[in-house]
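Q: How would the structure tokens look for this protein?
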Amino acid sequence: MKKELVNYKEAIAIIVLFEVGEFSILASGFSAKKDVWISVIIATVFSLMMVILYVNLLKLYPNSDFLDIIINIFGKKLGKILIAMYAVYCFDLTSLILLDALHFITVTSFDKTPRILPAGFMIILCVWVCKKGINILAKISRVSAVLLYGYIIITAIILLQVSDVRNLQPILYNGSRHVIKGTFELIVYPYGEILMFLIVLLHLYEAKKVKKILYSSVLLSGIYMFIMSSVIIMVIGENYASSLTFIAYGVAKHIKLGFLKRSEIWASTMFTLGMFIKISVYLMATGMCVQKVFNLKSYKIILMPLMLLSLTLINFNFDSIMTYNEYIFEIYIYYAFLFLIIVPVLIYLAGLIKKHFKKKRHD
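A: Here is the predicted structure in token form.
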């Protein structure tokens, strides 16, 4: 029996927060416009199919994480080259998510505060949590997940009073092309990013439990995104939604009911928690990739240097939030699709072929 550092519910909580925390503000998939809810359903079904691949991949090489599986299939030299590519990808995402968080903080709350202050606080907190281990992050996620779903239930109930279901009609008015693009965005971000947990967490469980954890996580995330996206369109309409940088944050401002007059504070809290968890998971994944490539004793010694490099990188990346968003939805999602969907499928197929020929030689 494998040693489970994180229990079943905590594992689900951390994956759900990882997936939907950022969605609580930015909300991808809105290229589908008023049909975004259709894109959410299709992307969720596709992700459930990817769960089958992840589980079967772990079954091929029990007690191995995603990085070990790569080396087992492709050998040390080629395997380490592929892992190094994943290290670059994870590091890039760590920087992008950190920049995402800083954009939100500076634009909505601390526009005159030097960016280095919230960045420094976020970096220190993420590095500290990562050094403590995935189990600490999971315990934080379990509490945060309760707050997240409490927030979405209350928000949905209140916003239904000012919503108009006619904003969702007619279905497919803008054509299927927009739905396909919105689905593609959601498959990559946030669903495809579940792959990171094959590196940092899921190898600690038996395959059957991995299946239950991932199915539960994807379904809970899908329900959240379906409710959130539908409510957004019903409340503010597709045109206004597409013009907002922080969509869900803009919708939260429509809530004015007693103590919930400043509901955007709750939205901001959920977003910050989600970003904190996402940065931490990607940072751990980056550290583990680098550890595997250079045969380090521990990935924890390089976490702070990685975050400082990330802080340096974000100062040269983008001129504005608009440039950043264009990069994410016009460039990033395509190369991320390669790392998150195409390469894992190819790795699984290569593993099947290798197992087949190995079995044939023994026969």
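Residues 106 and 113 are 7 Å apart (CA to CA).

The mean pLDDT is 85.

Upvote if useful.
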